[in-house]
Specification:
CATH topology of the largest domain: Rossmann fold
Radius of gyration: 21 Å
Shape: globular
Order of helices and strands: EHEHEHEEHEEEHEHHEHEEHEHEH
Strand content: 15-25%
Number of domains: 2
Distance between the termini: 44 Å
Number of strands: 14
CATH architecture of the largest domain: 3-Layer(aba) Sandwich
């Protein structure tokens, strides 16, 4: 894709977490979508749920890795995104992780330093187990709670004050639900990620309190081998940790800046610069979507990416371009970047009509 001779063409890609999205509801299975859109856009703004694939990841130099709460604040115009060359990442470990499993996380972190050259500080262990509890809403969406959220916040305070952390990678011990129908359905590629909602609660808490990039990786023992696993969930079967993709994403996650930060840096990105937003067609009720719908941002909804939700653009009075697939969405983005009306690429062009008085 040739560089724009005008201003950068900026696209947002959102797949809500923990709602069973047909594409993006599994282990990094929306990453091919992100890669395709990154070839069309000068700047792609998306979130960990899209880019994280356990031990699999893909470097996208023009993508901004933005945690969900930060993305909401960005869409509202409360925060801006300041691209960076690299971040100092502090690994924060839940005291509730068993020694052997904790060692697996540390070895993964050390591997990213030695093999990928990431900048990690010394790590912090929480002063109490975080106590993650998994919940499921009536819609089927997953969420969760923490028994000791204050312990998490104290650990982040230490990471910032003592290690000068610029990004936080949290690893919390998650409950083992090996025999649940939810987990089995997810592994077979037909259910909701049972962990995603609780993961979002953890990262939201950190970002809301400290305005610092954050992402989470669950600590769990390996699942039993199953030859019938779906390819969409197979990335989570590869080893003992989901941490590598989180550390890679956080290594270049943009810093979160306030509009009052003057003078504004010329490379910072703000909500009014987002040209288009691509979302599942029945998951339009999120804060970021509602905020962008009040701007000049073109909303593109993808019909085949179904979720457990039923919140359509029409039900909210949002003007949107409806497409069947992400392939078609990429075509709409190409036309928009070129300054073309997408309808000009079809045989259905209506005649002009007078504006009624």
């Amino acid at each position: 894709m040739k560089p724009s001779i005008n201003r950068p063409f900026t696209v947002g890609l959102i797949v809500p977490t923990g709602v069973g999205a047909a594409i993006g509801g599994y282990a990094g299975d929306a990453l091919p979508v992100a890669r395709a859109i990154a070839e069309v856009a000068d700047c792609l703004i998306t979130h960990p749920n899209v880019l994280n694939g356990a031990q699999l990841y893909w470097p996208l130099p023009n993508a901004l890795y933005v945690e969900g709460y930060a993305l909401d604040q960005f869409a509202q115009g409360e925060w801006g995104l300041q691209p960076v060359h690299q971040n100092r990442i502090t690994l924060l470990l839940d005291q509730g992780i068993e020694p052997d499993l904790q060692l697996r996380q540390l070895q993964a972190a050390e591997a990213t330093r030695a093999t990928l050259g990431l900048t990690l500080t010394d790590y912090v262990v929480t002063d109490a187990p975080l106590g993650v509890c998994l919940k499921t809403a009536a819609s089927g969406a997953t969420w969760g709670t923490l028994q000791n959220p204050d312990s998490l916040l104290r650990a982040v305070e230490r990471a910032i004050a003592e290690a000068k952390a610029e990004a936080i990678a949290v690893v919390a011990r998650f409950p083992e639900d090996l025999g649940t129908a939810t987990l089995q359905a997810y592994r077979q590629g037909s259910g909701v990620d049972p962990l995603a909602g609780a993961e979002a609660v953890i990262s939201h808490l950190v970002v809301r309190h400290f305005r610092i990039p954050c992402a989470h990786a669950p600590a769990l023992p390996p699942l039993p081998l199953d030859p019938t696993i779906s390819p969409r969930s197979a990335a989570e079967e590869l080893g003992y940790t989901f941490l590598p993709c989180v550390l890679v994403g956080l290594s270049h996650a943009p810093q979160l800046v306030m509009p009052s930060s003057l003078p504004k840096h010329p490379t910072s990105v703000w909500a009014d610069q987002v040209d288009a937003l691509v979302i599942p067609a029945d998951a339009c009720g999120g804060s970021a979507v509602l905020s962008f719908s009040q701007r000049a941002t073109k909303i593109i909804t993808v019909q085949e990416n179904t979720t457990t939700l039923a919140v359509t653009p029409a039900s909210l009075g949002i003007a949107a371009v409806s497409v069947q697939s992400y392939l078609e969405a990429v075509g709409v983005l190409v036309a928009q970047r070129a300054g073309l009306n997408p309808l000009a690429l079809t045989s259905h062009i209506a005649g002009l009509a007078p504006i009624k008085a």
